[in-house]
Structures are given as C-alpha cells and as structure tokens.
Amino acid sequence: MNFGEGLTPEAIAFGLFTILTIGGAFGVVTTRNLVRGAIWLIVSLFGIAGFFVLLSAPFLASVQVLVYIGAIGILFSFAVMLTRGMTNLKERFNSQWWLAGLAALTAFLLLMMGVVIPVFGNTIAPVSDQVTSTVDLGVALVSGNQYVLPFEVASLLLTAAMIGAIVIAREDD
Amino acid sequence: MISVESVVVLSAILFTLGAMGVLLRRNAILVFMSVELMLNSANLALVAFAQKWGAADGHVFVFFVITVAAAEVAVGLALIVAIFRLKQSINIDDLHQMEG
Amino acid sequence: MTIPALGDLNLYVALPAIFLALFTTFLLIIDLFIAQEHKNNTAYLALGALAVAFVWNLLTFNNNTTAFLGMFVADSFSGFLNMIVLIGAMLTILLSMDYLRRMGIEQGEYYSMVLFSTAGMMFMGSANNLIVIFIALELLSIPLYVMAAIRHQDVKSEESGIKYFILGAFASAFFVYGAALIYGATGTTNLPAIFTAVGEIVNTGSDSIFYLVAGSALIIVALGFKVAVVPFHMWTPDVYEGAPTPLTAFMSVGGKAGGFAALLRVMVVALPALTVQSGDAATVWQLTLAVIAALTMILGNVVAISQTNIKRMLAYSSIAHAGYILMAVAAAGTAGVSDAATRGMLVYLLSYTFTNLGAFAIVITLEKEDGTGTAIEDFVGLGRSRPMLAMMMAFFMFSLTGVPATAGFIGKFLVFGASIEAGLVWLAVIGVLTSVFSAYYYVRIIVNMYLRDTDKPSEIVGETQFVKYATYISFTAVLVLGLFPALALNLLGGAQITLASLF
Fold first, then answer.
1. Interface predicted TM-score (ipTM)
2. Minimal Cβ distance to B61: which of C163, C170, C183
3. How many CB pairs under 8 A join A and B?
C-alpha cells in the first residue's frame, strides 16, 4: 500500500471499506448471537460493494447490494428466525476449535506467502481508471469470448436449486 | 491510488477469516455465513485482477459466482430449516447420529 | 462487437449433454402429470433419456474438437468419461426405482435430480474453462445435496445432506478463490490460454508464480474435497452412510468421475508447465498429489478394516480407491506420461463404476425398510441361503481388491504402470501393498458368506426386478472387462486429453 502522496480520497475510502469488510467478517466469526451475525455479514458485504465501486465496477457493486445484501442477507435473516431457539449460543466455537484454528492458521500463512510476495516484487501497478460499464459486461457475456455455455449451465443450476429447495422443504404428504 | 495487490492481500485476509469461521463455529447458519464471506473474498480478488488485466472476464466470473451463491443459499437454508424441524438443533457438533 | 452465428458454436458435438439437460427440464414438467402410483414411468423416461444420450455420445465420440468457441471440448477423454457417468446414472436409476418405493420416499423429482447431476458431470468432463468447471461442479453437487436429504423423516438422511452441503460449499469457495488467483496470474480462465501464460511466467521467473502455486493448491484442495481424498475426507463416511443407498452408490461413482475429470484436465491442460525451473520433467504439483494419494490409500484401507457397517466400509473403500485414481493424476505430472495416466484413470473409473454399483446393488438387496440389514454380520450364511447372490458379491469384492481376471485388476494394472513410468515407483509400491492389505476386509465379507454359518440367515427383502437387472449387468460387465480387457482398451483407443491446438 502506498500512501506516499498523502491521504487521497481513495485512500480514505480504502481504509473505511477495509474496516467495514474485515470488521464485519470478524463479527460473523466471533459473535454469540445469530441475528447480530446476520447483520455483521451484511456490513461486510456492504464493504465489498464499496470496494467494487473503488475498483471501477459500478454494475457489480449494485448487483452486490441487490442480490447479496438484498436477497441473500434477507434469506439468512429468515433462516435465523425460522430456527428460533438457536439465536443465542452458549459456546462460541466447536469442541475441536484448537485443531481447526491451527489448520486455519497454517493455511493462512501459506496463502499469505502466495499473495504477499508479489506485493514486494516489481509488479505493483496502480489500478487503471477504466470503468467497466454494464455495456462492457453485457458484450463480454454474449460475444467475443463467449460465455453462452456457462450462462446456460447457470440457468440449469438455478432451476435445479429451485426445485431442490422445494423438494427439501416440502412436508411429506 | 490503491493498488491491485493491496486489495488482493485484503481479500486473502477475508478468505482466511471465512475459512476460520467454517472450521471454528458450530452453528450451521454461521458456518454457512462464513462460506459466503469466502465467496465474497474471491469476488473481491476477481474484480481487482480484472482491473489489473483491463478485461471484463473477471467481472463475468463474479457475475456467475453471485448466481451460484444464490443457488447455494436457497438449497442450504432449506436444508438447515429442514434439519431444525427434525432435531430442534442446527449445531454441527450435535450431528452425532452416526458414529464410527 | 461481433455476435457469432449459431453455426459457429459447433453445437453438434455438445449435443449429448445439451439433450440431457433439456430433457431434464421437460421431465420436471412431465412428472407433474404422472400419478404417484405410476412414478416408475418417470424413471423409464429418465432411463430413456440417458440411453439416447449414451448412443448420441457414441456417435460424437472421438471428434477432438471444441464447441461454444472454445468453452467446451469434445475429445475422446470426455467421450469416454460421458460413457462412464451415463452408465453410472442408468444403473443408479435401476437401483433406485424399487428402493424408493420400498422406503416410502418415491418422488418424481428424484429422477430429474439424477439427470441434472449427470448433465453436470458431462459438462465438467468437457469443460475447457475454469468458469465452466465451477458452474458444472455446482450443477453436479447441488442435486446430490438435495437427494442425500430426500428421506425427510430420517435424521440420518438430513444430516447426511447438510454435512455434504457444508463440505461442498466450503470446497466451492476454495475453488473460486484458487481460480481467482490463477486468473490474476495469467489474465484468463481458458485452460489452453492459461497453459501459454504459465509457460511465459515460468520462463521469465515472474512473481506471478506465487499466485499460480497458491491458486493451484487451492484448486487441488477444492477438488480433493469433492473426490474425498485424505485429509479432506472427514465427513464422507457420514454422508455415505446417511444418504439413501442408491444415491450413495451414485455419489461414490459419478461424483468421483466428475471431480477427477476436472482435476486431470486442469492439471494436464492448464498447468503441465508449472515446474520449478523451465525444462523440468516433473511439475511442482506432482509430489503433492503423490503424497496425498499415498496417505489416502493407506488411511482409507486401514480405517475400512474396523467398520461393522457395509455402507461405511464401502465409504472408506471408496476413499481408498480415490487414492488409486489420484495416483494416475499424479503420474500425469511427468512430461510424456499423461496419455498413459489418462487411459489408466478412465479404465479404473469404468471398472470401479461397475464393481461398486454391483456391490451396492447387493447391499440394497439386503437392506430392510427400517434401514437395518447393512451390517457386515448380515452377510453370514448368505453363501448357503442365496448361493448366486453370494457368488456375485464375492466377485465384486475380488474386483475391488484387484484380483486378476476381474475388472478391478485391469484398472489397477494400468494405473500402477503409469505411475512407474512416471518415476513414482515408491507410490506404485504403496499401491500394491495397500491393495494386498485391503484384501483383509473385502475377503472378510466372503468369509462371512461362505465359511460362517447361522441358523437365521438374513431375510432378503430387496431382491426386486430392477435391482436384479442392475446386479446382473454389473456382474457381466465386471466379468467381461476382467476376462477381455482388450474390449475396453480398444474402445479407449488413443484416448487422450486434447492439449488444445498447441500440439
């Protein structure tokens, strides 16, 4: 991170969104209350939407707000309400928490090696200002590189998931 | 200006937080929320890299990841509610019906 | 902006998968008009669709071309793999028909879910792009989560569904992050294009190599969860035990085939140049995969010994078999061995499909409505009370061990051969030793059937028409493949993964 030129608006926004994203995630991982967990998740997702704006992807930012925060966040709140009685947790972590923690920590260190080393290399480049508009995204979906196949398979996937959710939730008759 | 690499490092931290949530928490909904955090960290990295390469492919990938996440949430929460109806518990540690 | 014409998409070669996918959505609607008493009709339709896709697949076999402007490859590898998953799905439906009715969980959507999952496997075997692999992986998995939990009143089944789901979602997250890092290093998600970019990165010694290594490690972890190799196998036995038995069979066969197909394609098409120094013969990931394979073979076989439930035993056995198949993927990491390794993997998958589905067919025959009848003790005296059934079960157990003249032997022979050719002799030795070791628990079933006697042999409740068909088909196939391996090998011909247009 290069703050050499002083506190630019971008740097301030970066810091703010970092706090939202990481803080929210930390809340999800540590909270004892499921409702708060859902709200922390939404805070974190909101931070990500902010990053999308910073990274010149306004369309994805709006999709993030609409689909992730709007739909998925609400679904989680529903699930929390439908499983009442589980809202306040006595124990925070599972019984093998130290083992899991160790595994996560090892994975973290390895992953950080992978992503941090390039930072100290000479590949650092400032983000371009090129905004990816909705038009660019639409064009990428249907022409040039051709995302027709994933698009169609994704529609199959949504059908399967929808039917599947009904099959699971249906009371036996 | 913010750099691509700093966003990627941030996404790696978020990914690890999510993975820790999955491994540490015992409530199925919180575990699942942590999975969503992991998917979001990947989205963040994808958007950052798309900016690095100046192409929309990364954005298209994010698009599909959000679609898949929606599908997963639909099925996953249905499963969680279904098991709650049967057992009045969604603690993964309590899923001890099967031993061995 | 150019919008390609329909003709450019080269849809013809993708038709088997497209047909299956389209038919599945129709089947969902048709099923609404089929009365609950006649749900077998849904199953017949599903079987018919699979058969049509199978024939179509034979017609488009060996095309070695791409469709959807490079997103979809139709080569002999994907053709053979489609064959395996279609056979697996057909046998699964045969096994399911009476079983579902017997257990009182018959629902028309079940068959559509099997077809959705099969279509996902077919797309996965043909995927030439990380995005397609990801979405196909989900299309493969989500129906499996649903089907695992289809026994609503049974806590075990619901638990199996939720455990499989959390594991699967966790794995997908790893896959996406790994794919993101690879995209970050190479700027593309297209496998052949990644290959080119990797070559440049290795040659120039760019720092992006760290992204690549981290990314490919995450993808190995993700697909490792999907195919259940050690140390990502934790919940597999629980999932396999709790799910309805025909579905357990399908998961152990089809899910594995899809997962390994994607793993092999990513490793062999996109990352074969990921070496420590340019010009090295073996890739960076080879040793990792070899070690995972060794651990999987050892742990799977050792833990299987102490199991008392046949479904759990077969679950650990399937973990062990994942280890043998992974051995082939590891062998493909040495330049020049990838063709032999691919052939080994395909034959292994084919023989494992028949053998395992056959073994599960026998388990279904013995399983009672209340879920009992699946203890290893329940096989005692079967040799006297039901000689034919016992003989077939014994044969499947020999095939799982890898005794010569069974299908299992051919698969192991080819995989061990490829492994030795790749210079991984130590891995082949571990493979042979663990195979010998595994005989202990497979033969125990045979001992129970023939050498121990009981006054009350278990009652056979599930020997219904379609289960019988599935058993006989599997038995014949294991026998024929074992005696005339040339049949499969000829069909396989020069099966190989098309290395795009680079060579």
1. 0.94
2. C183
3. 244
